[in-house]
Amino acid sequence: MPSPALDELLAALLRGDSLDRRAIKAFGSARIYDAARAHDVLPMVADRLALAPELPDDLRELFLEELHRVTAVDLAVEAELRRLHVAFAARQVPLLLFKGSHLAYSHYPRPDLRARIDSDILIAREHRELVDEIFRADLGYDAPTKLSGELSATQTMYVKYEEGTEVHVVDLHWRLASPQVFAQVLSFEELYEASTPLPALGAWARGPSNVHALLIACMHRVAHHHDEPDRFKWLFDIHLVASRFTPAEWTSFADAVLDRQVSAVCLDSLARAAEWFATPVPEAYAADARFAEARPREQTAAYLRTRPKASQVLDDLRALPRWTDRLQLLREHLFPAAAYMREVYAPGSERPLPVLYVQRALRGLVKWLS
Prior knowledge:
Elements: H1 4-15, H2 21-38, H3 42-50, H4 57-90, E1 96-97, H5 100-106, E2 119-122, H6 128-138, E3 155-162, E4 165-173, H7 180-183, H8 188-193, E5 196-197, E6 206-207, H9 210-223, H10 232-242, H11 247-259, H12 263-277, H13 283-286, H14 289-294, H15 309-319, H16 323-334, H17 338-345, H18 353-369
Helix pairs in contact: 1-2, 2-3, 2-4, 3-4, 9-10, 9-11, 9-12, 10-12, 17-18
């Protein structure tokens, strides 16, 4: 893992500070490369160092090679995203590019500078079957088997291959997040109504508004990546979005996070971003007394501390309004679809399904309690 001094060097590179040539030479290209990859900000760091004429050629070479690689990959991804939006437009199915995939085109200087391994897309839940047909029949994507369920499953993956080589991966979502306490914070309909165009990807392409983009970035870092809260990729996303905020957007954002009961999560995310990147968070926002009053009532705030997986599952059960939904979610956790069980736990085997469920339960027990 990067050292504190190396982390500070990376943060300075991302902030755009003057190059500290002595520190860069002392750490060396290999250590800086590995640290940037660990924080998943390698394209941004490579762009900064590969084109710096004041650095020696041997130090810049590794980053120049990486810059060429990510640029080539991004061109292929962008071509697929254009194809995808044309296909959705032909079927008149609305969609949103969101999370890092959206920010790459809306807030980064160039889309290839935002590290990402897939494209995150959000759709209305009722369009899942039609969208599956678009990906498989119209676009030629494959869909690897994933855990299924009406409540436990909030997304699925589609992969495009050309001549046996993976060229694009789409993570298709119909809820905003997997944990139930975050899943319904914003609906697709309200996100789409406030969305803004992404002209680089065609007339059908849209992404969340600035206010919604910041809420999603702050929430995603905690809901899905609470085991890596200081990873620079998530914090720099937050920094870039917040840095463009107007006073009116800060007011709207404060009202939104309080109304949706994610104020503690968002305040923590902004504080971490400001610590590393000097994100300009207004004093009036950071000192808003309503946040301190709201935190004890927010179930989402529990994700700011380390807890067993079982505690998170209990939170999900409490977040559902009806006992029938709670029982269904518990059933989906304990007894996933038979096809999934066969593929994951016994491919090619004839072992009885009850044996596979017991095997899965024993494997999962340690994970749920640790």
